[in-house]
Structure formats: C-alpha cells, structure tokens
Amino acid sequence: MKKFLALVLALMFVCCCFAGCGNTEKETIVVGYTIYKPMNYLDESGKLVGFDTELAEAVFGNLGYDVSFKEIQWENKYTDLNSGVIDCIWNGFTCNSKDDDGIARSEKVDFSYNYMENRQVVVVKADSTIAAAADLNGKIGLAEAGSAGESYAKSFEGVTYKSAIKQTDTLLEVNAGTADFAVLDAQLAESYVGKGDYENLKVVEALTSDVEYYAIGFKKGSELTAKVNGELDKLLANGKINEIAVKYGVENTTLKAFNNER
Amino acid sequence: MSFIEITAFLANGFVISLIIFAVTLIVGIPLGLPIAFCSMSKFAPLKAVAKTFVWIVRGIPLMLQIFIIYYVPGLLFGNPIFSQIDRYIIRNFTIPHDGGLTQMLLTNAGGLVAVLIAFAINYACYFSEIYRGGIESISKGQYEAGYVLGLTKSQVFKFVVLKQVVKRIVPPMSNEIITLIKDTALANCIMLPEIIKQAKELAATQALIWPLFYTGVFYLIFVGLLTIIFGKVEKKLSYFRS
Hints:
Oligomer: heterodimer
CATH architecture of the largest domain in chain A: 3-Layer(aba) Sandwich
Strand content of chain A: 25-35%
CATH superfamily of the largest domain in chain A: Periplasmic binding protein-like II
CATH superfamily of chain B: MetI-like
C-alpha cells in the first residue's frame, strides 16, 4: 500500500514537472490536421506529407519554430485549439463558411490570408441516378461533422442529413450504401473517388458549390496570425508556394494573390 | 500494402491497446481496494465521499471522462498538461518518421497518459464495487469464529476472508477485464492510434475498408487467450467448495 502511494505521488510529481516545463518559452508549434489528401496525408513510408504539411513546415521553419503535427477529430477542432492541444488548424480549413450553429467561423478563430480556393462536391455511387438538386429530395446525405460540407448538404430540399467523423468516412458510407450521397471538399474527392475500394463512386459535377477559400485558423488574439501572414507573403513572392503546389498537383487552385474574403 | 504489412500496421495499434489494457489493470486492480474500503468505512463522511466518487465515475461515459481529463486542464486552467508532455518530448527526443511504434508512442505520449488516467480511475471504481460485493458476501459468522479463535481483525481478513473473496470475485473480474480490452477502442476519441484508429487510417489513406473488420480477429484471439487463463485461474482457486 505504501509503495503504491509512493508510486502515485511520484507520478503526480512527474506530471507537475511537465506542467512546469511547459510554462517556459513555447518554441514548438503544434499543427492540427486530419488525413486529407493532398493537403495532409501519409506517404507509403508512413511520413506525413502534403501541400499544407510542407507549407506549414516552410512557414514555421523560417519563423524559427519547431513544428509538429497532431491528428485531430475535425468536430473537436475548436476545443483542441482553445485548450492549447494545438496552436493552429492548417488542414484545408474553409474560412468563409458558417458552422452548424449559424456562427461564422471567422468569429471563432483568427484566420490568416486565404491561400487556396475550394468547392464542395456531391459524391454518389457510379450507378446512381442523382444528377440535379431535385433528385436529392428524400435522400440521405452525409458530411463530416463540423465541416463546410455540412451546411451545403443541409441546404438541399428534403435531404435527411447525417454526419460522419471524417471526410473519408463519408466515402466509406456511400460505398456501403448507408447514405445516398456525401458532400466533401473537391480537393479530397479528386484524390479518392474512382480509386482503390472507391472505384465505383463518382462526383456529380452539376451539384458543385460556389467557390470558397482555405485559410489557417489561429486562436483568437494569437500573435502567430500576423507572423504567418508575413511569411506567406514572402513565400508567395519567392515562388516557394507554387513549387509545393506543383509537387502536389494543386497549382490550379492555389491563389496567385492572397485575399481576405470571409 | 500487402496482407502482412497491413497486419503489422494494425498490430502496432494493438500494442497501444494492450498498453492501455495492461496499465489499467496494474493501476486499477490495487487502486480499487482503497476505494472499496472507503465505501465500506464506518466513518460516514469518508463513506459518502467514496460513494459519490464511484457514482460519478460509473455514471459518466468513459469517453466523456477521457475528454474531461484531456481538455479541462487547458480550457479551465490554461495549462494543457498533456499537450505539454507532447511538446516536451518533441523538443527533447529524436522522433523517427517511419510510421513505426516508436513514432506512435512518442508523438502521442500526452494523449496516452490522459487515457491511462481516465481508464485507471474508471476501472478502479468498477473493481471497487466488485471487491465490496465479494467482501460483504462473507458471512458475519466467519469473522466471529475467527475472533473466538483469538485472531486479530487483520488476521481474520488475511487468512479467512481474503481467500474466499478472491475466489468469488474471479468471474465478475474476468467479465470486466474482457470488457476492458474492447473499451480501449474509446481511446480513438482523442485520436490515439489504437487498432481501430489504425484501421480507419488505412480506409482514409489507402482506401481499404476490410482492415476495419479484420481488427476483430485481434480482439478475438486476445479474448480467447484471456478466457483460457481465467479458466485455469478458477480451477486453481477451487480450494474450497462453498
């Protein structure tokens, strides 16, 4: 019993030490991401790569920070950010969208410049008859919880909406027939639909949404926002952003001049 | 990825599940004992505290407890302890980027500690109730017989009560322990890479769906082993017929 108490006390002590360490200068930036090809994903050797991954490494590297990546659940992103588990959300984060509660995302986090454009697309089984918005009436629609696709999926008349934990899970469900269509980011759909076990899925081109923008999300009032914006300007000017975009095949959607549309 | 590579990838995740399993038992089994004694205490305030604690821990879903332990230090006290552990490790260790077990453990150490705390406390409370039931099931007559023979209170507990209690609590304990290995899957609510999370990662990155169902084989084999062990333990403990 005494030994056990000693062990518990020792553990508590260790925790306090860690807590103490943390209060010293914070030089490691933790970037929150979800698996999202081609923005953040694992290559065949298990290394995290992708457009957002390399851009984040370049920006924070130049600013003199260590950078590490932490996989999060998208619906927990604000909790992760506000509780300090991560320092920024850099994962194809649509900034000019409202969350399910009707509050604009820009009210909840500080955004960097918009650096990429995106659209929401509707994915169905290849043999599906869905071709226009009217066909979605009475169908079951699926999107990632807390995603920009969520509000787009709900905007169609007569749709029964369900949510999934990950964008990629929505494809799994449409494939398994538990939902009739999924709404997800065009970038992601392009990387998966028609490949591997998802070869019998297709994108309904006619239902693609209006353009929206990706930006990096920081905790409200964070001093990182301005620093990162400054660095993004430099990397755009010296062509580094375009270089990474070409590597991941996203040069057509990368903005050639940043904007601040919310 | 070949079948063998996928098995190895999932096995890495199962190691995390097994770590949660083992540490929960190592901490939870002894920790249940003081909780059981407190909830049987004759000192009313202590008893009330213990009972309330057990009520809260058993009354809230384990997933929510993981969220509370993981997020509340950062949200309420501005000190994200578990994230600090991660940052400390990132600063002080060279982390290999090969997707292997070392990388998984080093990059998720903070989350793992949070999950271990949540699991250990949760399971200790369940165990404490099993212990209490076992101890209270021993009839008063046996204590009285012990005292008449001149044994002290602690001797009666050690030599008369405990052996019977151990025997009686094995079936309910084995039930909880089998539930525990399956509960480890809850760790993926904070993205700890246990086996289910690994399988979903294959679905996300390789567009492979079958590994998710294949994970069931890992659990089945492990529970099969546990069942054999518990059978042996019960046989060994058949020293008295009651």
